Amino acid sequence: MLERLNEAMARIEADLEGEVDVKLLARIAGTSEYHLRRMFSALAGIPLSEYVRRRKLTRAASEVLSGQDSLLDIAVRWGYGSNEAFARAFKAMHGVGPQEARTRNKPLQSQQILTFRLVVEGSTSMEYRIVNKEAFKVVGRGTRVPLVHLGMNPAIVEFVKGIGMPTLERIKQLSDGEPEGMLALTYNQEGVEEGDQLDYFQGVVTSREAPDDLEALEVPENTWAVFTAEGPYPETIQYMWRDVYAQWFPSNNYQSVEGPSMLRTQIDGDQAKAELWVPVTS
User: Fold this and answer.
1) pLDDT, tens digit, for every residue of 237-250?
2) Where is the HTH araC/xylS-type domain (predicted)?
């Protein structure tokens, strides 16, 4: 898997002056575009689109400093339609505009070419099981929230608080399927950067009809990888998400697929037991 991922990184460099085709990169890596984006972000710590942008601006910076071409020629070569758009993107990465960088020889940032190597970090085992589950229904309430990588998500906290304890208790009483109890479902994520929007649904698996004041979310038949973790809250849950994509997927013959991921959490003070369901295909 890592060898094919490095082949995709080499293709990015080959196509950098033109349009980088993520669908082609996914084919080279032998996976889906959705899974490639999720796994790259977990392994590299930045989204794939941001890596490509930073590589382009790194190459552009060397041309700015060389002084051989006009700034407009450089801007157009690296995909910007005007000097202004190029200057904004250049300053966002390097801290100075291209004109100032050229005339004052300012130090600039560099996005190094990424390569992936096997590092032995899996000294602790990751407990998981594979579950084939028919289509089912989740009843509760949903909203749209921004992505938060570390710490509590204020939008989710406020949303759940707004549901109110009486309604949450009523939702819990509807639970009659697996996974049992109250679940947090996330899906339709627009990206992997901090602040990107995703759908969040708080509810339970049930065979009963949704009351008038609640919503029903239909989840299609799927295969699920189910992970368990225990430790400090909320770090344990967020690290579990990271480790699933950075360690488990590269070590196993499964890929993530689009669909809701489900998290069941039991919190006791500052500790948590968590069970994460991720839709997969082999």
Assistant:
1) 878 888 888 778 87
2) 6-104
Domain 2-104, architecture per CATH = Orthogonal Bundle (1.10)
Checking if the pLDDT of 108 tops 70, the result is: yes
pLDDT digits (tens, 9 = 90+) for 113-164: 887 765 544 444 467 888 999 999 999 999 999 988 777 789 999 999 999 9
Domains of the chain, residue spans: 2-104, 128-281
Residues forming beta bridges with residue 273, ordered by sequence position: 230, 266
Q: Which numeric CATH code is attached to 128-281? A: 3.20.80.10
The pTM is what?
0.67
How far is it, in rounded angstroms, from Cα 101 to Cα 162? 50
